[in-house]
Amino acid sequence: MRGFEFDQLKTFTAVAGAGSLSAAAALVHLSQSTVSEQMRKLEARAGVPLFVRSKRGVEPTPAGERLLEHARRLVALNEAAFDELRGQAIQGELRVAITEYFRPAEVAGMLARLRECYPRLSLHVRAMKSVEIELAQSRGQIDLGVVMNLSTGPFRPVAGHATGILRREPIYWVAAPVLAEQLPERLPLVLLPDDCMMHQTAVRLLKEEARPYELVHSASGVAGLQSMIVAGLGVGCLCASSIPDGVVRLGAKHRLPALPEAVFSLTPPYPGERETVTQAREVLSRQLIA
Q: Is 182 exposed, middle or buried (0-12, 13-18, 19+ CB in 10 A)?
């Protein structure tokens, strides 16, 4: 029989999004052994390896990336069809703000799938800082937001958003390969402005460990930060999904402090929110997690 098993494709999107079989198992409510068996059968049907396995988890191969694009679209369309038949399809206007750190290479595709699945939904999307997103929602300027918190530390601890978590990601010190090979004792930092929680966390941890540093460049957004790091202008901090090609993760030999996890979540419901927003929160919690 030609084609793929839908349950395997759904699990495949969860594994690719979570970065490990164990994390995906919790998302799809299956045992890790079942997830592993489904992925084995999917690779056998595809006839090519779909994942590269390492100590850090799993990453899609080029063939896996191609299949992932189709699989995410099929899963999203399946859910949209179910919502449509139940009379729960989203329609109307929705104002959404998303932190720039949230899967920058993938978020546009996610929003495109959302528009395809719910053609009567009019989306207005902005990229903003997490603090600004929460303030904008409190003022009624947006309906829903995706914000970033940290797993530990004094800056925006995650406890307040525990019910709306979309994903967790490790945060790494990163640099261009040439700079990583000969890292100065006085660490050259490239960060966002000092109202960014990642900036505050990096500086606090370096001070706690008495590691000399200097802020050599400041970028206005994540895209600019990525470009500066790729160019070798300094060391930065990025969560896993926002690390671009052309940089490396700094390891134990560089003697840098351990960073907390980034925890991405939807902003909580607010009193009297529109039904469209409530429905959208449920859909986004499914689609943005994959």
A: exposed
* Token duo for residue 2: 């030609």
Token pair of 251 as six digits: 């390891």
Nearest of 286, 283, 284 to residue 88 by alpha carbon: 283
Distance CA 259, CA 249 (A): 12
Tokens linked to 201:
């966390």
Q: Scan for tokens 């090519």, then name that residue.
A: 48
- DSSP state letters, 174-211: EE-HHHHHT--SSEEEEE--TTSHHHHHHHHHHHHTT-
pTM > 0.85: yes or no: no
Longest dimension (CA), the chain: 63
One digit per residue, the tens of pLDDT, for the chain of length 290 reads 678 999 999 999 989 888 889 888 888 889 999 999 999 999 999 999 999 988 778 889 999 999 998 998 888 888 888 877 777 677 888 999 999 999 888 888 888 888 888 888 888 999 998 989 999 999 999 999 999 999 876 555 444 444 578 888 899 999 999 999 989 999 999 999 988 889 999 999 999 999 999 999 999 899 999 999 999 999 999 999 899 999 999 988 888 999 999 999 999 888 888 888 888 888 887 777 65
AA letter at 222: V
Among 234, 120, 111, which residue's Cα sits nearest to residue 184? 234
**DSSP tag of 264:** E
Residue 253 DSSP class: G
